[in-house]
Amino acid sequence: MGVECMPKKIPMRQCLGCREMRPKGELIRVVRAPEGEISLDFRGKKPGRGAYLCPNEACLARARKSRAIERALTGVIDPSVYQALEEQMKAGEGHG
After folding, report:
1. Digit-coded pLDDT (tens) for 57-96
2. CATH of 11-91 given 3.30.70.20, 3.40.30.10, 3.30.1230.10, 2.40.30.60
3. What pTM does this model have?
4. Which of 23, 50, 65, 72 could form a disulfide with 29 if both were Cys (CB 3.0 to 4.6 A apart)?
5. Which is nearest to 85 in space by CA: 23, 38, 43?
């Protein structure tokens, strides 16, 4: 009866760059797969440990400078991975 009118709870996540809480759907997930590969997950469905970033390069740059992604994913990230993340972010800007 009254269950149908309850608003759906929106999951919130914190961006590693700007540290703002935003709805999970607005953020890009950086994921470390069980094999250790790090990539961007625009749909939020890939298996592995995830961390979140706003969909802009400034937040990626800020997170890289503060090593926030490395801390969140508990591992050292090669500079080539950051380059790949930047390219994926540029290519996937219209993901939503």
Report:
1. 899 999 999 999 999 998 888 888 888 888 877 877 544 4
2. 3.30.1230.10
3. 0.79
4. 50
5. 38
